[in-house]
Amino acid sequence: MRNALPNASFFAFTGTPLDKRDRNTYRHFSPVGEKYLDAYTIKNAEDDGEIVPVKYASRMAQLQVVGKTIDQLFDELFYDKTPEEKAKLKKKYATIDTLAKSDRRIARIARDIIEHYSDHIKPNGFKAQIVAPDREAAVMYKNELDKLVGSERSAVVMTVNNDDSKEWKEKYKLTPPKEKSIKEAFIDHKNSLEFLIVCDKLLTGFDAPIEQVMYLDQRLREHTLLQAIARTNRTFPRKNFGLVVDYAGVGKELAEALVMFDKEDLEGIFGTDDIKKELANLAYWHKETMKYFEKVNRSRGRPEDILQRCMEILEPEDVRSQFDMAFREFAKSMDLLMPDPVVNPYVEDFKFIGTIREGAKNLYRDERMSLKDCSKKVEALIHAHITDIGIEEILEPINITAPDFKEKLEIKGSTRAKASHIEYAMRETVAEKIAEDPVFYGSLKDQLETLIAENKKERKDEAEYLKILLQIREREERRETYAKSLGLKDTKELAFYGLFSQFKGKLFHDSNKEQVEFTKEIIRIIKEKRVIDWTEKEDIKREIRSLIRRKLKAGGCPKDETEPLVYGIMSLASSQLKDI
């Protein structure tokens, strides 16, 4: 190629970092002979939300094979055997590799995997991969899992050769369609298949975002290790991290193995002590979230009053935003470590601030604070706490148009708490309905915002403030009655009526009756010309605009006010009279 294209530039693409020893690659493909032209690193992908970080945890150190002598492993694995029994076993397990596949070791690790998965992974709805040291061990893991949880929850995917036993060929040799169906079952969150047991397949090139944990009992190295852990870093709803649980003991040599890569290439990959480091994170983010409520005495007063005081602290949007960021980090650490007893000192505070956050989300109608992005473990813990202390109804948002509005308001606690709930419920209602009736809800919005601004400035008497808010709310409640009293059919017609209020004395005399008649005439023009999907058909809309324009002109509408009014009528018609 060099001879044929002496002046060409050559480019190489790789999905994993190049090791430092491979200077040949840099020399042949990089114009500067040293580094990449461009790189998208693990840290870049994490920052962009394209992958989740991967954590590392070491389990059952006494059974790990890396760095152990055969005598050490025997003493830890067969601690209950006599010297004579150990001598016989040593003949059976003559090497570290054979000892790694002893029935006793595999059985103990399999039980530990089920315990860890049931406590940490299954509650969030994620799945797992078990990486065995070889095919024989993969089959042993399968047999143990079948005993513990049944055969439907795990499957072996491995290479089976022609010279393997008939039993292996019958049980584990997979046709391409069968292997595909296993992969699809694993990816399907509704399917009962939770564990894929592998040794030589599906460690690279297999995308299963639902996989959160890899139970590693094989000594993977360098690029193979990097590609294998990437099975757990794919994004999935509520998935905050991937996890590698090490049973082989590769953590001790992991740091040394990764020295061959440039530090910046691997920034973001797991370290060898992530679980211990996470405890420091947990303590830090616990402090950061609790600082917002330092001045609240949680030992005095009713739970609902304490809760309301804390929610008031979060009223400013910037404070809520900062608190929410700290809470999310706190929740990630809790998710990773629960139900390990190390989190016990933090559980009560976590449930407390989770409850505050849920209340603030509902009071301020702030969906950014929803628990839907937190893990299911975290969500279940907080909701269970809310139920246990019996404040579900206090936290629920109120709807000012609901028939049981007064009953719901009554349980909100103090006068100040009630006023807060009405204020934000009114804001939400106005925001939702202003397109239905721009004049009425625009007026309501102005009245509400003026009252809120005055209250912040003067700090009105709480009872008086609540009384005025209730009066504003009653204006909204009386819309239907008011429409009927005018002789209008419903609140849809009332919305058009409102558009013409400013034209009294121009389009008609200062008379409600004439305004009602004019309103009905405009609505009749629109309804007569409607067809199916008329709001998408420009020719129909053009004809309706022309007829309305003619009616306004005949009524004496000022020329400079005609087009804005036509636009307002058509906008309202598109939402209120869309269907025929």
Main sheet specs: 6 strands, parallel
Q: CA-to-CA gap between the ends?
A: 70 Å
Strand content: 5-15%
* CATH homologous superfamily identity of the largest domain: P-loop containing nucleotide triphosphate hydrolases
By DSSP (H or I, 4+ residues per run), the number of helices equals 26
Low-confidence runs? none
CATH architecture of the largest domain: 3-Layer(aba) Sandwich
How many domains is the backbone divided into? Answer: 5
What does this entry look like structurally?
The chain has 26 helices and 6 strands. The chain is mainly alpha-helical and 580 residues long. The protein has 5 domains: 1-39, no CATH class; 49-272, 3-Layer(aba) Sandwich (Rossmann fold); 278-395; 405-477, no CATH class; 487-576, no CATH class. Strands 1-6-5-2-4-3 form a 6-stranded parallel β-sheet, sandwiched between helices. α19 packs parallel to α21 (462-477), α23 (491-499) runs antiparallel to α26 (559-576) and α24 (512-529) packs antiparallel against α25 (538-555). The longest helix is centred in the middle third of the chain and has 21 residues, at 317-337.
